[in-house]
Amino acid sequence: LCGDTPANSIVRYASATNTWHALGGGDGNGVDGIVYALAVSGSDLFVGGAFSQVNVGAAIPASRIARWNGSAWQALGSSGGNGVDGTVNALAASGGDLFVGGMFTQANVGANIPANRIARWNGSTWQALGSGGGNGVNGSVSALAASGGDLFVGGSFSEANVGVGIPANRIARWNGSNWQALGSGIGGFSGVSA
Question: What secondary structure letter does DSSP report for 2?
Fold first, then answer.
């Protein structure tokens, strides 16, 4: 509950009327787990975390990420798949793309696309971020920031473009086609976590 409003893990506040509103349709609302990240793009709200369904009560399968379009929930997927196979910690919207970071190794669960802890949703399909046969980073992603054509990625990792490794100590830049280290990174790195 939020005030007197039944709401599962997410709610909207309307300042004009000083009221809380659940995000849902029919007899459902919210998500069935924890929300860790939010991003707004146009009139869409993207929600990421540790959940497997949205619109609880009239559930829609959504593997750790979903879109609320103002009136209904939608899973992010294609070809029978959706979402990612591990927790989503960070989201960043840029242009028509949504960048998703966390503790996963596959996107579009059910019709898997290998994606090491970071992936891009372009509005219709999932894509890994990599080149030359590599992709993503080798540890969890906890922060994302988009600026111009660059995406800055922070977390508990020591390598970007996994499989064709580029040393990157806890921070790296994706320039739209390649991974780049930022100097010597952030000091004190002592290991890699999932």
Answer: B
The CA distance from 12 to 21, in Å, is 5
Of 122, 16, 12, 17, which Cα lies nearest the Cα of 68? 12
Task: Supply the DSSP string of 164-188, one letter for each residue.
Answer: S-EE-SSEEEE-SS-EEE-TT--S-
Residue 33 structure tokens: 């787990």
> What is the rounded CA–CA span in Å between residue 127 and residue 118?
9
Query: Which amino acid, 36?
Result: Y
The model carries a pTM of 0.92
Q: How confident is the model at residue 2 (pLDDT cuts 50, 70, 90)?
A: confident
Cα distances from 88 to residues 18, 136, 139, 193, in angstroms, run 31, 14, 13, 14
